[in-house]
């Protein structure tokens, strides 16, 4: 049946579109379908969050127990006198005053800074040279494995091997004596050579890691920059000095910070390589001084004060490096 506007037959009138819901006004747009239930969405989100806590939890617990808790304990013990058995006694800044006047701490600071000033520039310089030499070598994978082997080897094992080499009747001393024509040097018994022996072991142990880092930095330099310099007539040395080395400076800056911090924490090499940081405390470092006070004499207050002094020394050296990086660190995007 056709209904017209006047009640009789005539022009048909289309019936109104059915509403999406009852009670909705005529002509209203249909409502969108309701999303998934909030309970179901919240359930899988809560499940994923719980699994995230399960995976992150062991790391957070380990960091809290082995990093945060000892750090807070060291700060507290630095202002106290305690031997681990008797009652803790607050002494204020007496531990810091005594340590700053202790000749052993001052000797340890000097030895540690000497190790850092020798191993960092020499080690990074050798790593850059080796990385440049291996850059175009097709069989560099084999050499990288050989250079990186000491990095993944236990420091104790490395120190024990070098201890045999540094003996007066060892291979290294014998080779030097035969080539130079002198008596075999006593590397670990001579106060003038013992610190150099520690530096040699440190440089040899960290060389492989720095070589891989610098090699990756060299390969990341844009080939267009190298090609433009060659078109302008730059030779190999000019190319390295004016292009490669400046663009490698961010990697050098990063490696120098890591190497300095690692050098300031030198302990295991000295502990295994020499006897009691000898001879005559020639290889005594700050960390060895902290160990000797805490676990040799059970003076945890002075030991904690020395550790705080090491922290402040590390922060000062790192701040100096960050302040100086504006003068020698160049970035390819910024210079472009």
Automatic annotation (TrEMBL):
It is a multi-pass membrane protein. The chain crosses the membrane at residues 53-80, 113-134, 141-162, 193-216, 247-267, 305-324. Residues 109-321 form the ABC transmembrane type-1 domain. SUPFAM superfamilies: MetI-like. InterPro entries: ABC_transporter_permease, MetI-like, MetI-like_sf. GO terms for biological process: transmembrane transport. The keyword Transmembrane applies. Residues 1-41 are annotated as: Disordered. GO terms for cellular component: plasma membrane. Residues 1-12, 19-37 have a biased composition (Low complexity). It is found in: Cell membrane. It comes from the Bacteria. Keywords: Cell membrane, Membrane, Transmembrane, Transmembrane helix, Transport. Pfam families: BPD_transp_1. Belongs to the binding-protein-dependent transport system permease family. This is ABC transporter permease subunit. It comes from Agromyces kandeliae.
